[in-house]
Amino acid sequence: MSEELNLIEMQDEDGNVLQFEHLLTFEVDDSFYVAFTPVEKMEEFDVGEVLIMRIEEGDDGDVYVPIETEQELDELWGIFQQLYYEDDEEEEDGEE
Q: For all residues of the chain together, what is the average pLDDT?
């Protein structure tokens, strides 16, 4: 059985289109964050590596902004893991 990916396309600084699989969108302290992984190996990121970015409103819609501090990224990583793996456990429980 094939699972359909929820893809996000973004452009890098050089205008190249990059594809990521959307893993989770979550809210922390009135801010929204998105977690995704590259669909294919990239210069800076490997397939399976999780990237977390803050979602902010821009003039042309949502803008993904990098997390600036290691401390904030660590906190978000912990929240992501809890939410993401909690969803997996719920799906497995529902299939039995």
A: 86
What does the DSSP assignment read for 10-34?
A: EE-TT--EEEEEEEEEEEETTEEEE
Tokens representing residue 47 in the block: 């397939």
- The Cα angle at residue 57 between residues 76 and 31, in degrees rounded to 5: 30
Identify the three-state secondary structure at position 8: strand
pTM over 0.90: no
CB 22 within 8 Å of CB 12 = no
- Residue 47 per-residue DSSP state: T
Using alpha carbons, list the distances in angstroms from residue 35 to 7, 14, 86, 96: 12, 23, 15, 28
Q: What's the token pair of residue 72?
A: 């904030």
Q: What is the DSSP letter of 2?
A: P
Please tell me the distance from the alpha carbon of residue 51 to that of residue 17, in angstroms, as a whole number: 17
